[in-house]
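Example 3.2
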Amino acid sequence: MQLGLSVSDSDVSSFTPLVVLELADDTKAEAITWLLNRIRGKQQNGGAELLVDQLLFPAQDGQKSNPNVFVVGSTLQRLLKGAEDVGLFKEFQDGTMRGFTYANRESFKDFYDGEGFLSDAECQYIIKHELDTLRAKNEEHVPGYPKVKLYPGKSVGKCMSITSCIR
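Structure, written as tokens:
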């Protein structure tokens, strides 16, 4: 992470930021709260179970900084389950390449305790996939934006014009 950037304090334990999520600087607070709750929420409730926190930029050269920049990360367990969800292929103990499964995780080469098993790029891909697949549930519109309609099963990110960047 670059010097001068900091992750704000929150109730989640510290995590390694892997993806940057930027919303327009004039996004309404209720829409941001709703989106962050969806990102943090349990999968069975339509969430992604990811870790997210606000990224604070110090203002520079008289420019207004965007307060709606967030970093997204994950627990190791969530990343490993996500690796299975995206169909990630990894080397098995016998040298063959196989689709990763959480249940058989210890049968993959270099797994050990899981730390370092996934590359940064693989982790970023998994998180980006989870953000891209956040879907509307029973909401009719984005909170604070009654004209932005949501339809069950449709991507939430497209409605919010989410820009995500990989570090």
